[in-house]
Specification:
Layout (H helix, E strand, L loop, with lengths): L1 H33 L8 H33 L4 H14 L1 H20 L3 H16 L5 H13 L8 H25 L1 H17 L22 H14 L15 H4 L48 H17 L3 H9 L9 H13 L9 H14 L4 H14 L6 H16 L21 H16 L2 H7 L31 H9 L1
Main location: nucleus
GO cellular component, one term: nuclear cap binding complex
Keywords: mRNA capping, mRNA processing, mRNA splicing, Nucleus, RNA-mediated gene silencing
């Protein structure tokens, strides 16, 4: 009896210990995930407190902490510099843990490449690069990795999209670490950029015309995505790699981080191409606005400023993460962390239309973008409807040269949007289109929009919403056709006698 009681007590103690450990793990995960979010204290003080907590628990929960931090690096790229600062502070206090984390991130990076998880691979590379700023990884070993990735651009008998992606991954990483590499390894950095330029000058761009939204470049050139990013990187290099968008909390801890020992990245060889691999397709950078379109408030960054790339990438990521919940997506877009520095409404509208008009097909169905824009208008009724109206006017004025597929998407979106706002629109401003040939894209657009609106309403409502001058563009009213009530009904057979006899014989 005594031994049985001891067994029961032992099991209860074990169960309590497991339960306590699970509670601690959940608390650690919550603290790590929430670091850097809005609170009464600064990001720096939050990081200091979290480092103290994690340092005390490293002995027991080392693997758990490693897993959470590596997942945050991939799944929360918008907080990249916060987590690299956290890893840097932990490395300064525990060199062994810093080495284990670097090994863990390298493993994550290699697995992402092998499994064709291209976004995860790019975010992992960015995280490793930013660890150079936090004195966790040496600049020399990072440059060796970047050079190895650029080696892929010289591979033969592989698809160009493979070579393009590896170059894009390196270019999109440089805004985070370019300044540090420029100060420490300027000649090596210039050599890397020269190799990239050689590749970009010789690559084929036959796909460019097929991916354009408009057939003309006025007023905004439609640049191929790698060419545009390369121009932005060159502008950043001219500015001595100084950008104004990426938060860098590790600067506040420079005196601590600079004393830490650094780790070297191991040799990382990209996996060879396999015929089953699918790479991201090329694209054309969509532009709708420039600084002259934003009358009040902060200026819109230039098309070749690196800030424009960083802002757009962040907004695209928010849409990707929240597109299934339109209300959350709209709230997250409007809660953009740097909204006081940019004309946020213009940036959001441009990015959403960039997704809608992406060629050859958008990432999501049309109604995803339409529903997000509706929620945005509801959340910011004072500003966003005006920006959206301005965007619609720009699209209508340029519709003559719009790609046919994008024309159809524009029709679908505009009719759906009107149906959610009582079909209200200032049609009088488009009266000039009535003087054009009926087959011209502008009157044709209005005609097709009204046809779509008819499916979302009824004919009399469409007639009432339109000025009388637009009568020739209105859809024809649909009428029931009951043939037995017509004048010719007496000549109609009620049944086919031959067919009836055939059925009876069967």
């Amino acid at each position: 009896m005594y031994s049985f009681t001891c067994i029961i007590e032992h099991r209860n103690r074990k169960r309590r210990r497991v339960s306590e450990n699970q509670e601690i793990e959940d608390r650690l995960e919550s603290l790590i995930l929430r670091v850097g979010e809005r609170s009464t204290s600064s990001v720096e003080s939050n990081l200091e407190g979290l480092v103290s907590v994690l340092e005390a628990d490293l002995g027991t929960f080392r693997l758990k902490i490693l897993r959470i931090l590596s997942e945050c690096a991939v799944k929360m790229p918008e907080k990249c510099t916060i987590y690299t600062t956290l890893v840097g502070l932990l490395n300064a206090k525990n060199y062994k843990f810093g080495g284990e984390f670097v090994d863990h991130m390298v493993k994550t990076f290699k697995e992402s490449l092998k499994l064709c998880r291209w976004d995860a691979a790019r975010y992992s590379l960015r995280f490793l690069a930013d660890l150079v700023n936090c004195h966790v990884i040496s600049a020399t070993s990072l440059l060796q990795l970047l050079d190895t990735m650029i080696d892929v651009s010289n591979e033969d008998t592989v698809p160009q999209v493979r070579r393009d992606w590896y170059v894009f991954a390196v270019l999109s990483t440089l805004p985070w670490v370019g300044r540090d590499l420029y100060e420490k390894k300027e000649s090596s950095l210039e050599s890397l950029l020269l190799r990239i330029e050689v590749y970009l000058n010789k690559r084929s761009k036959k796909h460019h015309n097929a991916l354009r939204v408009w057939s003309v470049d006025a007023p905004h050139p439609q640049e191929e995505y790698l060419d545009c990013l390369w121009a932005q990187i060159r502008k950043l290099r001219q500015d001595n790699w100084a950008e104004k968008h990426i938060p860098r909390p590790y600067l506040a801890f420079d005196s601590i981080l600079c004393e830490a020992l650094q780790h070297n990245l191991p040799q990382i060889v990209p996996p060879p191409h396999h015929e089953s691999y699918e790479y991201p397709m090329p694209s054309v950078v969509y532009r709708m606005f420039d600084y002259t379109d934003c009358p009040d408030g902060p200026n819109l960054p230039g098309a070749h400023s690196i800030e424009r790339f960083l802002i757009e990438e962040h907004l695209h990521h928010i849409i990707e993460m929240h597109h299934l919940e339109r209300k959350d997506c709209a709230a997250q877009l409007l809660d953009f962390p740097y909204k006081s520095k940019i004309p946020l409404e213009y940036c959001i509208v441009e990015v959403i239309f960039a997704e809608l008009f992406h060629m050859p097909t958008p990432r999501y169905i049309d109604i995803v973008y339409g529903s997000i824009l509706i929620e945005l208008c509801k959340l910011h009724p004072a500003t966003l409807p005006q920006v959206l109206a301005q965007a619609t006017e720009i699209l209508f004025m340029r519709i003559d040269s719009m790609n046919t597929s994008c024309f159809d998407r524009f029709v679908n979106w505009f009719s759906y949007h009107l149906s959610n706002f009582k079909f209200t629109w200032s049609w009088e401003e488009w009266d000039s289109c009535l003087l054009l040939d009926p087959e011209h894209p502008r009157p044709k657009f209005i005609q097709e929009v009204l046809q779509k609106c008819l499916r979302l309403s009824y004919h009399q409502r469409i007639v009432e919403m339109m000025p009388e001058t637009y009568a020739k563009l209105l859809p024809v009213p649909s009428q029931p056709n009951y043939k037995y009530a017509s004048e010719e009904a007496g000549k109609l057979k009620l049944y086919d006698y031959d067919l009836l006899m055939h059925i009876c014989n069967i």
